[in-house]
Amino acid sequence: MKKIIFLAVFAIVSLSVYSYSIAGQNKDLQNALSVQYAKNISDASSKLRDLDVAVKKTLLFNEGEGDLEAREDIWRLSSDIQQSVASLPLDQRFSTTWMNYLGRLGKFSKEGDERTDPKEFHKVMDRASENIESLSDQWSIATADMASGNLSMAEWQDRLDGEKATFDWKGLSASIQQYTESDFPLTASESDALKKKELKHIKDPEVTKEEALNKFKKLFPDVSKQVIDTTDSKPGAAYPFYHIRFADQDSIGYIDVTQKGGHILSFLTERPAGPGTMELESVRARVETFLKDSGYTDVVYEEVRENDTAFHFVYTRVEKMHQAKVLSDTIQVKAAKEDGRILGLNAAEYIRKEQLKDQPMIKIDWKTFFHQNVKVNKQDLVYVENEHGIQRLAYALTVTLEENGQVGTYVVLVDTETKDVIRTEKQA
């Protein structure tokens, strides 16, 4: 009996010692990680200040290679800060946005002067100087108490978690996005290429070059008589497509057809614009017939804009599960007011097709959800991307509210499971 008691006591003591040892190791690892985070914060802060100085140095010279060292510093510091930022558990949207800005800044400093007029190069770096100075100030405020190395993992999480943090990481992310768009706007070709590269894997069977040409001729008989050439997308492209260029009498343009499935990725034709004489409904009927002939049978009309010569339509995919509109899956179509001919199409977002999941739909009493003065006029179902980039099923409500003698109209998107308000937009 004594032997059994001894063994039991020995096991308990051994387990306690083991647990204490493991807890101590975990604590040591957390402390080391906290110190590493603090070091990366300090490195990013210091190098961000150095980056600001390097950018300002490029503004000193008009000729020669006086700014060569500064441009090399920008390239190096941008890369170093990216490494520091990548190792921190920051808000994902902020981290991605900042990495993108730093990458474009570094690339521009190294290559921009070779490809850009000196005056334009100076303008870009002048704007970047102001933005980096502002970013440095905001970063200092956000990380003021993070460089000590004395924070616990829970404290780090509270400061860096995009949902719980006291600092507005989403606001800073939005600022950096504005910096990116103002300092280094995408060219039309870059934007088009980016959309094509972002397409998710297409599982449809491959079509031949001849089949792609036949589809082009069937859908656009008025401009497909004179094909200049048909080329494949560049080797290594994530989603190969056929690029068909054409010229026919007064029209010239191109069409891109995916090699898998033979979907129209984009289409554009340029021709002299005549006077706009057709009514909107007549043009819309032609556009919707064209979409059906092209195989886009699961879309509904969303909105239209217009200029002097053309209507610009937007159509949205409707999924089968809930008959909900998928706001991220759209097709844009440009049609001439003169005769209803299709002048342009972009179906990249539609072909990309968001991956959707079902979710619970709780019943919500809108009379208690909204203020008593708010009137719900319409309710639909949509899939919409939330702030984390996740597609969520939402109630789309059109509501009105009397505002100082006038009626304000809003569209409110409410998550069907969590009741979170994903987005509120005031209608013109």
UniProtKB/TrEMBL annotation:
UniProt-listed InterPro entries: YpeB_N (IPR048402), YpeB_PepSY1-2 (IPR014239)
Domain Sporulation protein YpeB PepSY1 and PepSY2: 169-356
Domain of life: Bacteria
Short name of any one Pfam family annotated for the protein: YPEB_N
Domain Sporulation protein YpeB N-terminal: 25-138
Range of residues in the leader sequence: none
UniProt-recorded name of the protein: Germination protein YpeB
Species this protein is from: Sporosarcina jeotgali
